[in-house]
Amino acid sequence: MDSSSALLIGDLAGVAVFAASGGSAAVGKRLDLFGVVFVGFVAALGGGILRDLVINQVPPLAFADWRYPATATVASLAVFWLHPHLDRLRRTVLSLDAAGLGLFTVTSTLKALDANVPPVGACLLGMLTGIGGGLVRDLLLNEIPVVLRREIYAVASLLGAIAVAVLVGTGLAGVASLTGAAILVFAVRIIALYRHWSAPRPRFGATQPNGGPTSDSP
Predict the structure, then answer these.
(1) Which helix (H) or strand (E) holds 122?
(2) Quick check: 164 and 107 in contact, CB under 8 A?
(3) pTM exceeding 0.70
(4) Which residues lie closer than 8 Å to 99 by C-beta, 6 or more apart?
């Protein structure tokens, strides 16, 4: 399998899992069939559209290659029809989201590097693409985006993007090593969830800046 085929498969796999993540979240909100497909579609393709516009790939693959919207639609429909068999939808959403985060981070960082974006910019673009789908999904469902919560999310994506940039820079960017970078993102995200790792947050005294009681106050 050549690198372009592996990149396409990884990209479509990311589309599928993010669509399933968005669809599962929409099912949990009791949306109808159109709502489930729409949320899954936007969650799967939103980050990739941003990436393609930044690297000047116009029109974005979401509109230029039928396989992208078809994959997103099929995955969303599958979740809609199969959700009674998916135990604990929240756990399913989180697992799929972590998998999509890893896949999109790796493929988008690679595409940015191939488009001659400098390594630092490529890592940032890989991270933004990875977190973009979950950000749009949560906004559509009236949730605080997971990337803005205390959970380790963007950091996991950025670690994976840096790993990809290092692998490319050292000439070690094979299918196995890049798969390892995606697994790294997935593992950091899942472990952070189960171990309750979180980023620091501001600490206030007895009152918040506006004079009200803190959330930690009795």
Answers:
(1) helix 119-140
(2) no
(3) yes
(4) 17, 186
